Every structure is written in C-alpha cells, then in structure tokens.
Automatic annotation (TrEMBL):
Coiled coil: none annotated. InterPro entries: Palmitoyltrfase_DHHC, PFA4/ZDH16/20/ERF2-like. This is Palmitoyltransferase. One of its GO terms (cellular component) is membrane. It catalyses: L-cysteinyl-[protein] + hexadecanoyl-CoA = S-hexadecanoyl-L-cysteinyl-[protein] + CoA. It comes from Gopherus agassizii (Agassiz's desert tortoise). The chain crosses the membrane at residues 107-131, 143-167. The DHHC domain is required for palmitoyltransferase activity. Residues 244-302 are annotated as: Disordered. Pfam families: DHHC. Belongs to the DHHC palmitoyltransferase family. Keywords: Acyltransferase, Membrane, Transferase, Transmembrane, Transmembrane helix.
C-alpha cells in the first residue's frame, strides 16, 4: 500500500481547469489590446458571468492567470515549477516531484499514512535489538551499528511524517489547502478561512468520497470536479457586517460587480444535497446589540 500510494502520488497528473475557464479568441484579443486594468477587469467580468466563481483577489479583482491565459476557478493556483494552473492546489512537493492538488491529494495523504505505519513497523521490530545494543547483549559485529542506524532513521522519519500527517489531517477537517491556511480566500464579505468548510464529516467526504470502504485504497474517490466547491457565507463580526452592507450596492451594480453573481449549482453541491437552508434569526442590529461574534449562513439553491 505504501508503494502503491507513493506511485499514484508521483504519476497522477495534476488536474488543470477545463476549457470553459479559458477566454474566447475575441475576448483574449480584446484583453491583450487593453492597457487599463479597469477595462481588462470589465472583460474578465463579462467572460466570468456564467462561471461558478466565488473568490477574488484581495483587491476584489477577477483571478486571472496571464501565463495560462484563463480565469482561475476557486482554489486554483499557478505552480511555477509545473508551469500550470492546478485545481485546488495544496503545494508542490519535491519529495514526489509533483504538484499536490485535487487529482492526487487523497493519494498524498495515504502516502503519509502508510509511510507513518511503515516507519513505526521498522522501529518496533528493531527495538529489541536496539535495547540489546545498549545492554551489550548484542553480538559484537558490524551489524550492530546497522541496527543502531536503522532504528534512529525510522524514529526520526516517524516523528517528521507524524507532524506533517497531523497537520494535513487538520487541514482536511477544516477543508483548507496549505495555501489557504496561510492566505485565506476572499469572498463577498472579505477573507474567510472557513469559507469552504462544511463540517468535519463532510469535509472528509469531499476528499475521500462517500464510500468508506475505499477510503484507505489509493483510488480516486474525491467528490466534485475540482472547479466547483460548496461554499458557505460566514459573517465574522458586527464591523464586517457594516462593511458588507456598504458594499452591497456594488454587488448589484451591473458592470461594476466585483465577481459573478451566479449561485452555486446544486448539481455540483452534492455535500449539501440533504441540507436545509439556514437563516439568521433576528436583524443585524439585534445581533450587534447582543454582542454576537459569528453568524453562519449556509447559502443553498434548491
């Protein structure tokens, strides 16, 4: 299983955005002719109006890759090492010489898990000889130094892989990538590190799939297509409510709209199929007076 997972992590090609996120020939020519960023953004907004895009740059601009010449889907980033836009990119891993993203993130997690178990197995089987080495019960030969080296290497790798695996387990439970952990994606209400989180159980299913019997096998079972992700709107505090209300006219101002207004398609939102819509209780003013710090709205489309 260790070798199988490692093989799949290395040789699974990183998934890239589909053709629908590429600009048409006319839009691309018009974009290249324009020199003003405002005019370029107008072209991108027009091209992205029917795309399921809900995140922007920190300056509220459409995320566009000049290198690949396409509009970036949510959670997609350009990898300078691979020179590609990678869907749900987590990081570029030199240990596997590949990008870890939507297409092979499950394989990477299983590779870490089986590496951890393999190191534990080696350390446990060598432990008795390691103890005999320190008590001088081990026969005096060159092999005893090999035992010492093997135990220390297995123990050090176990500690290193354990910390990395624990960190990625935490990321999965929060439905974040490594990039999003350091730089929160920007939604309508500003940066929100929990914007893609649906709860620990559904976050696990998004990566490992619906059927638990396949969770520990290095076969692709992740949900979705890597371009569309269920989102939820998290209003952080009363101050952000004020900022959000001030920006509300901008969101419905046609050409000046900061990003497309098309709601998330339910057919692409399998994790929320059985969820009922959550509505805030009370007005915003009442929530501010009561000192509420967080109000969660799960936005669904029937």
């Amino acid at each position: 299983m260790f070798v199988w997972s490692y093989w799949k992590t290395i040789f699974t090609s990183p998934a890239s955005p589909s053709d629908e996120f590429c600009l048409s020939k006319s839009d691309k020519e018009e974009y290249e002719r324009e020199e003003r960023p405002e005019s370029q953004q107008d072209i991108l907004r027009r091209a992205a109006k029917d795309l399921p895009i809900y995140t922007t740059t920190a300056s509220r601009a459409i995320r566009y890759c000049d290198r690949c010449q396409l509009i970036k889907p949510d959670r997609c980033h350009h990898c300078s090492a691979c020179d590609l836009c990678i869907l749900k990119m987590d990081h570029h891993c030199p240990w596997v010489n590949n990008c870890v993203g939507f297409s092979n993130y499950k394989f990477f997690l299983l590779f870490l898990l089986y590496s951890l178990l393999y190191c534990l197995f080696v350390a446990a089987t060598v432990l008795q000889y390691f103890i005999k080495f320190w008590t001088n019960d081990l026969p005096d030969s060159h092999a005893k130094f090999h035992v010492l080296f093997l135990f220390f290497v297995a123990a050090m790798f176990f500690i290193s892989v354990l910390s990395l695996f624990s960190y990625h387990c935490w990321l999965v439970s929060k439905n974040r990538s490594t990039i999003e952990a350091f730089r929160a994606p920007t939604f309508r209400n500003g940066p929100d590190k929990n914007g893609f989180s649906l709860g620990c159980s559904k976050n696990l299913k998004e990566v490992f799939g619906d059927e638990k019997k396949y969770w520990f096998l290095p076969v692709f079972t992740s949900l979705g297509d890597g371009c569309n992700f269920p989102t939820r709107l998290v209003i952080m505090d009363p101050e952000q409510l004020t900022v959000s209300s001030q920006n509300e006219p901008t969101k419905s101002s046609g050409a000046n709209q900061p990003f497309p207004a098309r709601p998330l398609s339910e057919s692409q939102n399998r994790l929320l199929d059985n969820e009922s819509q959550w509505v805030e209780d009370g007005s915003e003013e009442e929530n501010v007076k009561s000192g509420a710090k967080k109000h969660v709205i799960v936005s669904l489309e029937s």
